[in-house]
């Protein structure tokens, strides 16, 4: 039955059994000469404790109701059920240690102090005739003080033990919350990475397709055979973009993830040739000795170069450009392009690609900047670097 699987149902059932057993025990164990009101007060105190414990899993403020029940029970002077009250005290110690965030030391001291005071009132004068408490204190035998000392030590140690258990539970809960927070942060980071990858793939591929389509439209009028070559290039670029998109999106499905190697710095030369086929006249040079990079850093370098080439084709068109990669303590990519008219009809992305370059570089301890080119008056320059 679904109802039996609910924790609330089992919690209520356990408290009902405890309450019924306590009620039967209280009503059947009245001592000779003990006033009836002692039992009534004890029952009220126990009822308040159990109701408070029941409500406490939803509202921590119900602890005050538990404390009220313990106070009423102490006033009744019913020593027979001291074990039940003490069990409630230990339970409250665990709950407060596990759930309280502030004033924890004061709460612990209050629990121990109140428990010792309650034992003092009940053990030293079980009949609750508190008017004769001072006389009883004067005439108490030595065994009374040793018993009280032993009970006090046991109370302090056991409450401290349950406090430590509550602390352990609290730390475990915090660790689980930290793990959940880290998982959420990792998911957000992965989503951001996928978004940047998708932007780079789509922007680069569509820019190349548009450049080929615009060039092919004019070339086909004078050289019809060029149309076939242009269409083949468009088909190749589209298929490549689709394959990269599928490879990227397969990350979202672990069981379908492919084993294809992500593009890296080794494919930069092919990337430059592809840009040249799209009309950009690139002078590509490298200085220094190329390094063996991690897959993540190699992909970042590839995407930065890709975005630089895409940016030049999109905003300048078929112009001259220089691409320089310097392999030193840090890897620097510098892209200069001459001024041009670019591809018409493309929406302005407000520098989203340039911001993506900066974000990628900063992941690996670098940065990026851009502005007017000194090599090509009126042109554009993008420079990015990342630690090697």
Automatic annotation (TrEMBL):
> GO CC: one term?
membrane
Q: Does the keyword section mention Oxidoreductase? A: no
| Annotated EC | 2.7.13.3
Keywords in alphabetical order, please: ATP-binding, Kinase, Membrane, Nucleotide-binding, Phosphoprotein, Transferase, Transmembrane, Transmembrane helix, Two-component regulatory system
User: Which reaction does this chain catalyze?
Assistant: ATP + protein L-histidine = ADP + protein N-phospho-L-histidine
Q: Name one GO molecular function term.
A: ATP binding
Transmembrane parts of this sequence: 35-55, 60-75, 81-98, 105-125, 145-165
List the protein's name: histidine kinase
Q: Provide the species name.
A: Corynebacterium gerontici
């Amino acid at each position: 039955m679904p109802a039996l699987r609910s924790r609330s149902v089992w919690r209520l059932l356990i408290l009902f059994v405890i309450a019924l057993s306590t009620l039967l025990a209280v009503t059947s164990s009245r001592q000779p000469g003990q006033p009836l009101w002692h039992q009534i007060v004890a029952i009220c105190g126990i009822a308040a404790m159990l109701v408070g414990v029941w409500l406490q899993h939803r509202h921590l403020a119900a602890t005050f109701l538990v404390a009220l029940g313990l106070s009423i029970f102490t006033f009744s002077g019913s020593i027979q059920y001291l074990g039940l009250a003490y069990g409630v005290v230990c339970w409250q110690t665990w709950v407060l240690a596990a759930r309280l965030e502030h004033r924890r030391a004061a709460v612990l001291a209050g629990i121990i102090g109140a428990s010792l005071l309650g034992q003092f009132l009940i053990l030293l004068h079980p009949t609750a005739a508190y008017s004769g408490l001072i006389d009883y204190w004067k005439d108490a035998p030595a065994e009374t003080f040793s018993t009280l000392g032993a009970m006090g030590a046991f109370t302090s140690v056991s409450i401290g033990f349950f406090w430590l258990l509550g602390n352990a539970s609290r730390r475990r809960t915090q660790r689980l919350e930290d793990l959940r927070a880290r998982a959420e942060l990792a998911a957000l980071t992965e989503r951001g990475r996928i978004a940047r990858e998708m932007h780079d793939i789509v922007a680069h591929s569509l820019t190349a397709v548009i450049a080929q389509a615009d060039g092919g439209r004019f070339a086909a009028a004078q050289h019809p055979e060029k149309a076939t070559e242009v269409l083949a290039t468009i088909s190749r670029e589209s298929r490549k973009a689709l394959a990269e998109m599928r490879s990227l999106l397969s990350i979202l499905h672990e069981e379908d993830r492919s084993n294809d190697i992500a593009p890296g710095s080794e494919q930069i030369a092919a990337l430059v040739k592809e840009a040249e086929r799209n009309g950009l006249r690139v002078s590509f040079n490298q200085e220094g000795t190329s390094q063996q990079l991690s897959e993540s850093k190699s992909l970042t370098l590839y995407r930065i170069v890709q975005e630089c080439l895409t940016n030049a084709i999109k905003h300048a068109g078929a112009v001259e450009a220089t691409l320089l990669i310097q392999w030193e303590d840090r890897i620097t990519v510098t892209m200069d392009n001459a001024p041009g008219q670019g591809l018409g009809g493309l929406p302005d992305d407000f520098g989203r690609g340039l911001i993506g370059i900066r974000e990628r570089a900063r992941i690996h301890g670098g940065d990026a900047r851009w502005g007017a080119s000194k090599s090509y008056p009126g042109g554009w320059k993008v420079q990015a670097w990342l630690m090697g």
